[in-house]
Write a structure and sequence with these properties.
With 172 residues, this protein is mainly β. The protein is built from 2 helices and 15 strands. Strand 3 and strand 4 form a beta hairpin. The longest helix is centred in the N-terminal third of the chain and has 7 residues.
């Protein structure tokens, strides 16, 4: 099978703040130990003692990514009338207990996932509107915004071109 570590690293792109990190620096940059376990054909990645924060590093693979522990996703609490999704946002907990909120979607990036949740369960009183990106952007193939209403939550994934796909098309 060859060296499993070499095979794994060949399929990874590592970035720090949007800049590619040379593969020879992966271990030092991330502060992790990467070692082959030939007994079960796995590559183990562990952090230094007491550290569980990879900072702003992005690890991308062409295969499956399996987390055997806690997985932390960038989460923002939104309590404004309008919020533009930031580059590192993944989960948006929206507080509509006082006013309606519009979530302005970012540019399309293939496979990017955005979770939107009515944090205070008040979207039936004050709506959450997901605003498509740009004049030609779409949500579910339609050039229109998405109102979450009493449903109060959605998972959106980008097609990388001009469409955000709502993975939870149930309710109103």
């Amino acid at each position: 099978m060859g060296n499993l570590l070499d095979a794994l690293l060949a399929s990874f792109t590592v970035q720090a703040n949007g800049v590619a990190v040379p593969r020879r620096r992966i271990l030092n940059f991330l502060g992790v130990t990467v070692a082959d376990d030939v007994s079960n054909e796995r590559t183990n990645v562990t952090t230094a003692a007491g550290s569980s924060d990879f900072g702003s590093a992005v690890v991308q693979t062409t295969g499956a990514l399996k987390a055997l522990g806690a997985l932390y996703l960038a989460t923002s609490i939104v309590d404004a009338t309008s919020y533009t999704v930031a580059a590192n946002d993944c989960i948006l907990l929206v507080d509509t207990s006082v006013h309606a909120t519009t979530i302005n979607m970012p540019a399309h990036s293939l496979g990017r996932i955005i979770f939107v949740k009515d944090w205070k369960a008040s979207a039936s009183l004050h709506a959450i509107t997901v605003h498509r990106f740009g004049a030609t952007g779409k949500i579910n193939g339609v050039p229109a915004d998405l109102s979450l209403g009493v449903r109060g939550q959605t998972i959106l994934v980008s097609d990388g071109v001009d469409n955000w796909l709502d993975l939870q098309i149930t309710g109103t």
